[in-house]
Amino acid sequence: MGSEAATSHFDGLNWEILVVDESVVNAFCTSDGKIVVFTGLLQHLKSNAEIATIIGREVLYLFNK
After folding, report:
1. Shortest CA distance to 58 belongs to which of 25, 36, 32?
2. Which of 51, 13, 57 is nearest to 34 (CA)?
3. Which terminal residue of the chain, N or C, has fewer Cβ atoms less than 10 Å from its own Cβ?
């Protein structure tokens, strides 16, 4: 029951990952579940695990709101 209450703000989110073709080295998550990653950041990553870490970090930001 406690974990349901902690994640209830995720209910109904339609998660999307958007890649923006700009040299910006950044990623962010909007409150409606859109994760935006810029190609400038992707150029610095060397593996799928690093990409997964960035996406996980963005989900965590939304989780902690």
Report:
1. 36
2. 13
3. N
Contact 31, 16 (CB under 8 A): no
Residues in contact with 42: Cβ distance below 8 Å, sequence separation at least 6, in sequence order: 19, 51
The residues annotated as belonging to the active site are 58
DSSP H helices in 1-65? 2-7, 39-42, 48-63
Beta bridge partners of 30: none
pLDDT in tens, 30-58: 988 899 999 999 999 999 999 999 999 99
* Residue 19 contacts residue 39 (beta carbons within 8 Å): yes
Check: pTM over 0.90? Answer yes or no. no
